[in-house]
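#onboarding

Welcome to the new folks! Below is a worked example of what a typical request in this channel looks like: someone posts a single protein sequence, and someone else replies with the predicted structure as tokens. Don't worry about understanding the tokens yet, we'll cover that in week two.

Example request:
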Amino acid sequence: MHSETNVHFQAAKKVLRYLLLSPNQGLLLASHNTVVLNAYCDNDWVGYPFTRRSITGFYVLLGKSPIS
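Example response:
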């Protein structure tokens, strides 16, 4: 990242804290899944006309399993 802020640092700390406090969590992947990473995203420019802010969504698959 080019312009990290305290917000980014706090978000990274939350991710690390989650990983440390949930060691029994994981991803369940089927054995027949191929190891292909697919990512899809969509956005709507001026989706909310009062604020003129865009709305973005994304979906990431590892094989056929959603990971994000």
